[in-house]
Amino acid sequence: MPESITPAFLEQATVCRLMADIAKFVFDTFSLGNPDMHVLMLVPEMKKMGSYPAHEIVPFVFARYTNGDALVPKQALYQDLAECKALQLWDDRNFGGPNSVPHLLLRGDTPYWGGVKRDGIVVACSGLASHYDRMLSSMVADACIAIAHGNYLAWRDANSGVDYVD
Description:
By secondary structure, the protein is of the alpha+beta class. 39% of the residues lie in helices and 25% in strands. The mean pLDDT is 91.
């Protein structure tokens, strides 16, 4: 059975809480009410086979947050759209800007934008206007990078001379 390895300096519960807090901040700041929406974060996951050095890096849904009633049909649509946006960003078929890249859209892709790829992670949102989807995604991505960096510095200070992250 393959071993799965995800980022060492981020915790899923922290990222989910962060997504909820940032969503509330965006809703309140821009008077958006309490809209139905979905946001998710992809991170690299490494799958190793035993002690064999060969591995595969694949996208892994590290965290997701849904605002609103998760059982209403449009929430399933927002989740699907956010996942599609995220995979396009992961595969470099969308660059996070205000336009689709028509020559890179595949059958079944969404033409909508509203996410970011930052330093190897992807955050995508759906349910708001695209510019708000992107802003919320950007805030989540940048906050996660900052949190991971802070956690890494604390680990490094406490583990001087350790050659590998545990």
